[in-house]
Design goal:
InterPro entries: Rossmann-like_a/b/a_fold, Universal_stress_UspA, UspA. This protein has a single domain, classed as Rossmann fold (3-Layer(aba) Sandwich), CATH 3.40.50. 44% of the residues lie in helices and 22% in strands. Strands 3-2-1-4-5 form a five-stranded parallel β-sheet, with helices on both faces. Strand 1, helix 1 and strand 2 form a beta-alpha-beta unit. The structure holds adenosine-5'-diphosphate.
Length: 144
């Protein structure tokens, strides 16, 4: 069976994505791998806790999800990959939880992610990267 690569994308941090592109392209060439991109957008229960009714923000949520999907597609277009081997996933919630869950669901062979935002230079691993490295059942490539 062909390999499955999971590539979590923070759509607000293009610099992080730039770092992983050559690595994803190299891995994708092996065994005709399928590349699963995942963008997690922030959970809206946070906004609800400020007393905004869910119904009043619901249209906004839909708009934001549509915009996020568009950003994800634009980002994926920067990778040189065969279109028929790309899968897109987008969910709302906590990035690390969804990255680990999707890795299990698709039975990923490897997760490829960047270590942290350049602005957070005191940390060698960001919070999501650290949780993925610690808890993933498959191999993880942390790009520095
Ligand atoms: P930092 O804490 O410096 O932002 P992170 O650990 O959050 O570092 O980011 C490292 C990697 O985690 C990113 O390159 C990306 O692969 C993944 N990641 C972070 N946020 C998200 C998100 N919202 N959706 C999908 N992946 C994410």
């Amino acid at each position: 069976m062909s390999k499955k690569i999971l590539v979590p994308i923070d759509i607000s941090e293009m610099e992080l994505t730039q770092q992983v592109i050559p690595h994803v392209e190299a891995y994708a060439k092996q065994d005709d791998a399928t590349i699963h991109f995942l963008a997690v957008i922030p959970d809206y229960t946070y906004f609800a806790s400020y007393g905004l009714g869910y119904s009043s923000i619901a249209p906004d949520v839909k708009e934001r999800e549509a915009a996020a999907m568009e950003s994800l597609s634009d980002i994926i277009a920067k990778f040189s990959l065969p279109g028929d081997r790309i899968e897109k996933h987008m969910v709302s919630g906590t990035p690390k939880d969804h990255i680990l869950r999707l890795a299990d669901d698709i039975n990923a062979d490897v997760i490829i992610l960047a270590s942290h935002r350049p602005s957070m230079s005191t940390y060698l691993l960001g919070s999501n990267a650290a949780a993925v490295v610690r808890h993933a059942k498959c191999s993880v490539l942390v790009v520095r």
